[in-house]
Each structure stands twice: as C-alpha cells, then as structure tokens.
C-alpha cells in the first residue's frame, strides 16, 4: 500500500540506522522524578541527544543517539560567525494510558524545511525528522512528565559546522535533537501578561528571515525584551515593516471581536505558528469567523476603546495560550479586556494534546510505539 502521508522523495527513503550509545551517567529515576516534580522551562535536559551529520557530498549520514553533552566545534564553524542556524519547538505529552504522543509533528518538519530553504541549509526529510523524535523517546521516554500543564519540550535544531570564514552556505551541517521537561512557560502559570510595544526595534523585515525559525530573529528580540522588563512588562509585541502588528518575540497574537471574529495579523515576516493554525481551525469548527489580514495599532487601540475587541491573546508551543492583560508603549498604557474564549480554546487544545478529549482531526502522533 502506498503511504500517502509522505512526499514522493521522502517516501522512497529508507529509515536511518541510528547508532545508540547509552549514557552510563544517566540520572537515577529518583533524581529524574525530583526534577519532573517542578521542571520549570528549559533548564533541565534529558540523558540523551540525537545527532545526524550532513555534507554536500555525502548527504545525511552518521545518525546517532548519544549521551547529552557539550558539542565540540571548530572556532571557525560558520554558525558562530554568520548565524546559519534554524530550530523547532514541539512537545511530547504523557496520556493517562501511559502512551507518549506529540502534536502535528509533520507541521514542524515542514516548517524546519521552509526555514532551511531561507537559511540556505539542507532540508531534513520529514521521515528523518519523525524518526529522530522516535529515537530520542525510545531512550528518554521516562522524562515525559504526567502532571497538569507538563510536557517534554523537544528542541530540534540545525547549524553550519563547516570551518571557514568566507560568507557562503556551509557544506557541512549538523542536525541535533535535545529535550527538556517543561511546566508552564511563564512562572505563575496562566495569568494575563503585560506586553511592551517596541516602536524602536523590529525583529524582522520585509524580505528578511521573520518567517523562518532562526536564531537571529530571537537575537534581534533580546534588547527590546530587556526594555520590556525595565518597563514592567513580560513580553514584547513587534510591528512589521509596514507598521502593522506582527507578533511577539516567541508567540503569535490573536484578537477576539464582539461580532464573533477571530482576527490575526498576516505578514511575510511572521512565523507561521502551528498553535495559531490549530486554534483557527478549532475556532472555525465552533462557528467563529476567522480573519487573517493586516491589523494596525490604531485598529487594536480603537477596537479596545469602543468594545469591538473583547479579548487579545498570544499563543505558541511553549506558552500554549496566554491572555494579554495590558499593552504598554512609550506614550500610553491600555488595559485589555479579559474574556473567556482564550481560556476555553486553551482547554480544548490542551485536552486534545493530552488525550482528555478525542482527537478527531488526526493531530496526534504516538512516539513510543
Ligand atoms: N512566533 C514566534 C516568533 C515563535 O518563536 C513561536 C514559537 O514557536 C511562535 C510564533 C508560535 O509557533 P508555534 O505555535 O508553532 O509554536
Ligand atoms: C516555542 O514556543 O516553541 C518557541 O520556540 C518559543 C520560545 C521558547 C523560543
């Protein structure tokens, strides 16, 4: 039978044969359980990592599962100088039956391929991407927590490791996958966040790399993020090159309107969020109207002032769905209305992800079988 889930070249690929080296210094189950009790976000890592090499001559080769640890790099490795790097963020959830599932991983594989094209990196075939997730879960499945709002955050990434100082796409590249047990992204759980409008800095530009998940976009967001903290805010919202609302440093933004419309910006510089696309689908199925178009700051502010906008929220894999409680800028501070849609969509989405609600759309992918 033909597997229609894979593209032609992908379908023809034989699986990689991973060489597995077990971590002899793996954390004991007791230490692991202690970490999983309150994992925070992004500070603890599992015992193993996956890596696959790529070269222009040999393609993808040397697939390995090895103990988690430092990477040895030549000081002239291109990534250290020119930032030729991309990554993904995806979570694994423990269901009540003990099974380990992830959410729409093919979408992350495709986005990694789109990011690769923009950054002149090789495209990792979808089947290899999925296989890397399975390989890591096979050795580190015990790290997937089962508590409320907990998951194992998986971080696939790829970078230029060839050593040279000329500016050109590297001929040697590494793909890695690491994993980190996660609780809530924001300390204190789900509560409305206050966001800072950056009018001085942008994270991305027209024709730039905004739609790619590449380190440089996040580097560009750090100074405005520091400014946000100084202003007593949790996150930054950026404007695009046309001066319209773009997105947050690591999350997309959505507006709920009184007439039952869910509105979200469209722009070439926005990261096409899988959480956002899933929310739009859930919203359509609830009978809401979905609109994706340019949203100006004036439309936002006037909408809140007139009552036309009834809720504003941010979403992404790490933070799931987070209501926005206030928008602050150099010249104003606007309280944002808090409604019930954001939290109700959050519940529906996380219920599907964690197996509390039936997955009728084929979004879940089992990783431990
Ligand atoms: N926008 C940016 C800049 C992000 O880093 C993320 C997080 O991955 C998102 C949006 C949300 O994307 P997703 O829902 O696929 O995690
Ligand atoms: C994610 O939501 O997966 C992100 O990548 C956001 C942030 C942690 C960079």
Automatic annotation (TrEMBL):
The keyword Ribosomal protein does not apply. Its cofactor is pyridoxal 5'-phosphate. InterPro entries: Aminotrans_IV, Aminotransferase-like, B_amino_transII, BCAT-like_C, BCAT-like_N, BCAT_family. GO terms for molecular function: transaminase activity. Keywords: Amino-acid biosynthesis, Aminotransferase, Branched-chain amino acid biosynthesis, Pyridoxal phosphate, Transferase. It is an enzyme of class 2 (transferase). Pathway: Amino-acid biosynthesis; L-leucine biosynthesis; L-leucine from 3-methyl-2-oxobutanoate: step 4/4; Amino-acid biosynthesis; L-valine biosynthesis; L-valine from pyruvate: step 4/4; Amino-acid biosynthesis; L-isoleucine biosynthesis; L-isoleucine from 2-oxobutanoate: step 4/4. It catalyses: L-isoleucine + 2-oxoglutarate = (S)-3-methyl-2-oxopentanoate + L-glutamate; L-valine + 2-oxoglutarate = 3-methyl-2-oxobutanoate + L-glutamate; L-leucine + 2-oxoglutarate = 4-methyl-2-oxopentanoate + L-glutamate. It comes from the Bacteria. Its EC number is 2.6.1.42. Belongs to the class-IV pyridoxal-phosphate-dependent aminotransferase family. This is branched-chain-amino-acid transaminase. It comes from Microbacterium marinilacus.
């Amino acid at each position: 039978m033909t597997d229609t889930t894979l593209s032609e070249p992908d379908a023809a690929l034989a699986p990689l044969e991973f060489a597995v080296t077990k971590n002899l210094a793996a954390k004991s189950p007791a230490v692991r359980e202690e970490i999983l009790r309150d994992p925070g976000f992004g500070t603890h890592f599992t015992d193993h990592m996956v890596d696959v090499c790529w070269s222009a001559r040999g393609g993808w080769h040397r697939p390995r599962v090895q103990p988690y640890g430092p990477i040895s790099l030549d000081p002239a490795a291109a990534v250290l100088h020119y930032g030729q790097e991309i990554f993904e963020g995806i979570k694994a959830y423990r269901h009540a039956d003990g099974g380990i599932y992830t959410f729409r991983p093919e979408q992350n594989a495709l986005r990694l391929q789109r990011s690769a094209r923009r950054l002149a990196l090789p495209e990792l075939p979808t089947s290899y991407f999925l296989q890397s997730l399975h390989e890591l879960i096979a050795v580190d499945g015990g790290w997937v927590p089962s508590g409320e709002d907990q998951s194992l955050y998986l971080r696939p990434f790829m970078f230029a490791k060839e050593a040279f100082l000329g500016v050109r796409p590297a001929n040697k590249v590494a793909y890695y996958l690491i994993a980190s047990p996660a609780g809530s992204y924001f300390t204190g759980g789900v509560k409305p966040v206050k966001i800072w409008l950056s009018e001085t800095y942008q994270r991305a530009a027209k024709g730039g790399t905004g739609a790619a998940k590449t380190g440089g976009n996040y580097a560009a967001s750090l100074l405005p993020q520091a400014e946000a903290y100084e202003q007593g805010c949790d996150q930054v919202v950026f404007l695009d090159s046309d001066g319209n609302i773009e997105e947050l440093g690591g999350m997309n933004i959505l507006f709920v309107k009184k007439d039952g419309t869910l509105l979200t910006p469209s722009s070439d510089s926005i990261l096409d969020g899988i959480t956002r696309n899933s929310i739009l689908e859930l919203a359509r199925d609830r009978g809401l109207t979905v609109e994706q178009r340019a949203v100006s700051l004036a439309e936002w502010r006037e909408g809140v002032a007139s009552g036309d906008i009834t809720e504003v929220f941010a979403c992404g894999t790490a933070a799931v769905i987070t209501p926005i409680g206030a928008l602050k800028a150099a010249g104003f501070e606007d309280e944002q209305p808090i409604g019930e849609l954001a939290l109700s969509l959050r519940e529906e989405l996380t219920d599907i992800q964690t197996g509390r609600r039936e997955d009728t759309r084929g979004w879940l992918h089992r990783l431990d079988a």
